[in-house]
Amino acid sequence: MDAATADRYLARIGAARAPHRSPEALRDLQVAHLHTVPFENLSIHLGEPVDLDEDALVDKIVTRRRGGFCYELNGLFAALLRSLGYRVTLMQARVPGNNGPAIPFDHLTLRVDLDEPWLVDVGFGKFTQHPLRIDERGEQVDPDGAYTVAEVEYGDFEVRREGACEFIVDPRPRKIAEFVPTCWWHQTSPKSHFTKGDVCSMPVDGGRVTLRKGQLIRTAGDERTVETFDGDAELLAAYRSIFGIELPRLPGKTPNA
User: Fold this and answer.
1) 200 part of the active site
2) Of the N and C termini of the chain, which has fewer Cβ atoms inside 10 Å?
3) Catalytic residue among 33, 70, 183, 200
4) Confidence of residue 254 (pLDDT cuts 50, 70, 90)
């Protein structure tokens, strides 16, 4: 990623270039990204291909101001961080389901090495808002809860929130091309949770806002409200006003339907 593209990306997330690389600067970039670029799978339900090529991701996330899911968001964020001088490693992770951890490469997450190794993630939906120390075994308190990192078998490590496993990370370095097959599976398989319904979500001050299957869900602590809409125009306006996303039509609707 060249400097001009990096500056456009920083403007997209409302962040400035920090004078030095530091845990605080890294945290600020992650928070800025999470609060401006939504986690969403709308392309799958709009019939748009998900392309992990960097130019395609820049066009989608920076130019067209869309969001994406882990392969897109963490993949492009890694390119931004590298352009800013950070040392970044792509890692694959498995997300637990009812029958144990899912398939390999189910999730893409990032390791950023400063004086310490940090887990950085802007593509998991509701998750930590601040980077986590990978080598810290005590509780790490975040705006979204208390997290721990624990070593597990085969040299992997597990990230837990309030004691429950979020995902299991294989720390070996990976290339973005290695995630392409599973990205395609998530776009096409009826067993993928991404094909079962559309979602668009991001944190806001004091909570989270989510558009899922035509309903707007706001959460703040233990409070949860659900709003419905009168017609497609109101729902399209909600995508625009809440998430800054301009859609040609609603997810799941065919053109001119």
Assistant:
1) no
2) C
3) 70
4) low
